């Protein structure tokens, strides 16, 4: 089970590490050809800002949606509506909401940090000397 889970995380990890590297080197090359030596750095910096903002918004959404679905089930149960269709829907929402708030939202922090660290470490490589 754990090996299968780790195997499934290879592609997302490679995407998080490879995307800033690919963008940096692509625009370093374009910058070198057009006489703009800082183009690779500028584009990878804006890529990192966009990825951080998008990741933060998605993490906030997942955390809030998961918490709302979890609390909806608690509300339905507090009103003694177990066994109703409303309770069945709330249980389904709770089943989705728990992974949202407990794993998916917080995991985006790791992705944002990994991308930022990659860009900071490899940043000097994206400068094109003419």
Notes on the structure:
By secondary structure, this protein is mostly helical. α2 runs antiparallel to α3. 85% of the residues lie in helices and 0% in strands. The chain has one domain (2-126). The model has no long low-confidence stretch (mean pLDDT 90). The termini are far apart. The protein has helices spanning 2-8, 10-34, 39-78, 85-122.
Number of domains: 1
**Distance N to C terminus:** 51 Å
| SSE topology string | HHHH
User: Given the helix and strand composition, which structural class is it?
Assistant: mainly alpha
User: Overall mean pLDDT score?
Assistant: 90
In terms of per-residue confidence, which ranges show pLDDT below 50 for 5 or more consecutive residues?
none
Q: Give the strand tally.
A: 0
**Rg result:** 21 Å
Number of helices: 4
**Major sheet, described briefly?**
none
From the spread of the alpha carbons, the general shape counts as elongated
Helicity level, as a percent range?
over 70%
Tell me what portion of residues adopts beta-strand conformation: under 5%
How would you sum up this structure in a few lines?
The chain has helices spanning 2-8, 10-34, 39-78, 85-122. With 130 residues, it is mainly alpha-helical.
What are the key terms here?
130 residues, mainly alpha, 0% strand
Note the topology.
Elements: H1 2-8, H2 10-34, H3 39-78, H4 85-122
